[in-house]
Amino acid sequence: MKLTNLTCLASVLAIGLGAGAAHAAEGKTLNADDCKALWEMASPDGKTISKDKAVDYVINFDMVNSDEDATLEADEFNKACSEGMIKADAATVKDMN
Question: Is the pTM of this model over 0.70?
Fold first, then answer.
């Protein structure tokens, strides 16, 4: 019985780690100009954006939100651009709308 539980737990962990790796592979690294264009789409007024808005742009809000304040500031967004944590560039987002 215990072996079965351990096997199930190992399988769940392996699947979870594999899914995390897949999400990381989906991210894009953007240069400063492309990142600025995308930030202007996400936050036309330049203010922070909420998690609800940010999830359209970033792979993992919690990883990008380094100060854990429930919003993304421009500097956090810029860091996400340079670290490959962005879902899509501005041209892709324009195509989706």
Answer: no
